[in-house]
């Protein structure tokens, strides 16, 4: 996927020397070209030395996302991700996955159940299918004083609805306290949607992006709870996991707020 992205002109470090056992026994890993910059979200949205970069980032990120979404099953058949698109469509597949995550929780969460019901009742019709980064957010970009230095973290990339990426950038947790700038703590939704539409040459469907933003908050809210359960079960004694779990209620609140507010 990284090689396909590099060919499409995406500003991402190239992967080299796929090897086994570099990180842990029998696990595959590879080296990436070095990229200078800052990736920690709180620093990206607040450090004074990155103020000039923040002015440019919304348009730069929109341009990179448009390049990612130019990659399709037909243009990059070597990806071999699936034999074909999900029969039920990417939105229905995402909903089924979120439902399975919620069902796996130790205790039910009412806000999650209400949100999942709304998502099922407002399932968007199928649309185009492209490569989706899957975790396109502040914290997964390397940012230098001059602007965007590189797009990172491709482990969730998949074929799906490109609006998933546009909505995911606006999930509440990726604003790092800059709640007046919902697009990654860097811009308003309107500014980012307009920049993306210019870069791709096609308009953004606000209703579909709204659905994916609700879905993103639900999915990360449930994911945050699951991180805490990993700690509480004794599976992994990392205090960061319960720190993440504390933020689940923010995503639950945001999902319900978005549903009430509408597109």
List the helices and strands and how they pair.
Layout: H1 2-7, E1 15-20, E2 28-32, H2 41-46, H3 51-68, H4 90-103, H5 110-121, E3 130-132, E4 141-144, E5 147-151, E6 158-160, H6 163-168, H7 189-200, H8 206-232, H9 239-245, H10 248-261
Antiparallel strand pairs: 1-2, 3-6, 4-5
Helix pairs in contact: 3-7, 4-5, 4-8, 5-8, 5-10, 8-9, 8-10
Report on the structure:
With 263 residues, this protein is mainly alpha-helical. It has a single domain, classed as Aminoglycoside phosphotransferase (APH), C-terminal lobe (Aminoglycoside 3'-phosphotransferase, Chain: A, domain 2), CATH 3.90.1200.10. It is built from 10 helices and 6 strands; from the N terminus they run αββααααββββααααα. The chain has helices spanning 2-7, 41-46, 51-68, 90-103, 110-121, 163-168, 189-200, 206-232, 239-245, 248-261, and strands spanning 15-20, 28-32, 130-132, 141-144, 147-151, 158-160. The strands form 3 sheets. A two-stranded antiparallel ribbon has the order 1-2. The chain has a two-stranded antiparallel sheet with strand order 3-6. Strands 4-5 form a two-stranded antiparallel sheet. Strand 4 and strand 5 (147-151) form a beta hairpin. Helix 5 packs parallel to helix 10. The radius of gyration is 18 Å and the shape is globular. The model has no long low-confidence stretch (mean pLDDT 93).
Number of domains: 1
Silhouette? globular
The largest pleated sheet is described as:
2 strands, antiparallel
Average pLDDT number: 93
What strand line-up does the widest sheet have?
1-2
Annotated CATH topology: Aminoglycoside 3'-phosphotransferase, Chain: A, domain 2
Number of strands: 6
Give the fraction of residues assigned to helices: 40-55%
Order of helices and strands: HEEHHHHEEEEHHHHH
Which class of secondary structure composition applies to the elements? Answer: mainly alpha
Strand content: 5-15%
Corresponding CATH superfamily = Aminoglycoside phosphotransferase (APH), C-terminal lobe
- What's the Cα radius of gyration? 18 Å
Any idea what the CATH architecture is? Answer: Alpha-Beta Complex
CATH class wording: Alpha Beta
Terminal Cα span: 32 Å
Continuous helix count: 10
Uncertain regions spanning at least 5 consecutive residues: none
